[in-house]
Amino acid sequence: MNKTITKSQIEGAAREAYSHAAGLSGGANADYIPFLANINPRLFGLSVMLPDGTSFNFGDTDYSFGIESISKVPTAILAMRQHTPAGVLNEIGADATGLPFNSIFAILLENDHPSTPLVNAGAISACSMIDPKGDADAKWNAITQNITDLCGSAPVLIDELYKSESATNFNNRAITWLLKNYNRIYDDPDMSLDLYTRQCSLGITSSQLAVMAATIASGGVNPLTGKQAFEPAIAPKITTLIATVGFYQHSGDWLYTSGIPAKSGVGGGVLGVLPGVLGIAAFAPPLDSAGNSVKAQAAVREFMQILGLGIMNGDRVTVTD
Ligand code: GLU
Fold this sequence. Notes:
The chain is of the alpha+beta class. The protein is about 45% helix and about 15% strand. A five-stranded antiparallel β-sheet has the order 3-2-9-8-7. About 55% of the residues are buried. Bound molecules: glutamic acid.
């Protein structure tokens, strides 16, 4: 079916979804990373970006928060740019585990694969895949430049978060060495873990994340810069990974109820991709028990429901002025 929506309908839906979600309580900041426990829990922002560069922003959309797990998305894209989507499938995998993002059990169950670049094991493995191997500074530049290409502006390291996370990431250290045991770390293990920890500690705003989401929705063309940030063939692959595991062990429930592939992070961010139509991002620190932001997920879900959009609807969506 053909479906036409106007930009003002999109803006109105975002405004309404934002104001409803703003009234929600419940959830709690992540506290296993001490820095995140102290972020103001009342912060809340919602950003929508269209492929033509039109954007709508409500609330704290310029607040720079910890990107956390959402960093797994751009680094998976970079790994695909450098090693092809087939290479990432072969070296890491593309399977949902159905288990928490930091599960060691998942690695033991699937010792032939770290499952997917969008859980901790696969993301550490993805950091190890990034070229040039053996050169931490050059790898870090490649990771941050790729995020800049996707967002149209640079992320900024939150040093305190990096220190907080580095001092407490014992579970991720265990994951790294277990993966090394299975030959799924493709560079120095400590360096790979440190790059992963650093990328999780990057500060990003919801308006920047909405540009990243819209770049993916537009087959790699950044709506702000007009530049092709990655090959179009990567877009359906990264969107598939986001759809299958983006909301941790609630990914199925999420896609079923919201209709939009989305990736969340324990910093409170959510990035949603509706291919060919729009990118959306939201941020609010309190999380549900699976680690997904209570307000951000409610806002994105309601936005989709108001507009009657859904990736599985089979609609050909046109956005007009
Ligand atoms: N840096 C966090 C960790 O490794 C990211 C977790 C997340 O956002 O899912 O535990």
